[in-house]
């Protein structure tokens, strides 16, 4: 975990040293970044809204659209070497990343400790992505108001009843992850089926939808086409109660846990 945490926050993983994984996945936003999309090192605008990493180790699908990415290690490599769009800009420059990391004696010690059975050079892209994925698997969010029931207001409780009942929200947003990890078109404007996003910490991860085009939870709920989703129309009061319930899914411990934060000292 220690090695992966350092790598997660290390901008040497990008072409010009300006981006790390944490540039887009910021702890205070539940490991999203608060923008519709995020530009890469070449200033190419992102295509999709940055998804949260909360509980990512329990997922089986890792992208907004079905790209058959079913391991966290494979996903960890995508922003580093991907080209559509260019994010961290290291396509075909994996050896440069290995060289940069291996030049740091602290990193070499951590790789030797993390991969004691590996033969030869241990600072490889395969091991780098394994280490990052290992850290990301520790990003567990399960201490929200809904989990603990501490401060669980009557409005939140009523919203829960609607969420699991009349609203049929849990059909796709299934606990404990609040996603079924399947792909759907939820409105007529959608050109592709998109993965059901987790609702854990949803109050912290605006803007919403795959393209970050919606600013509020109210807009996000109302943007579900009832003919495609079979979600009934809710009254204004019911909508506010559901939003209160969604607010109860915020895990303040998760966004302040120092184990997940930028290391206080550099690896050196």
UniProtKB/TrEMBL annotation:
Keyword Hydrolase on entry: no
Alphabetized SUPFAM superfamilies for the sequence: Cytochrome c
Gene Ontology cellular component annotations, sorted alphabetically: periplasmic space
One GO molecular-function entry: cytochrome-c peroxidase activity
Annotated residues for binding of heme c 1: 21, 24-25
Binding site for heme c 2: 169, 172-173
Pfam families: CCP_MauG, Cytochrom_C
Gene3D superfamilies in alphabetical order: Cytochrome c-like domain
InterPro entries: Cyt_c-like_dom, Cyt_c-like_dom_sf, Cytochrome_c_Peroxidase/MauG, Di-haem_cyt_c_peroxidsae, MauG/Cytc_peroxidase
Protein name in UniProt: Cytochrome c domain-containing protein
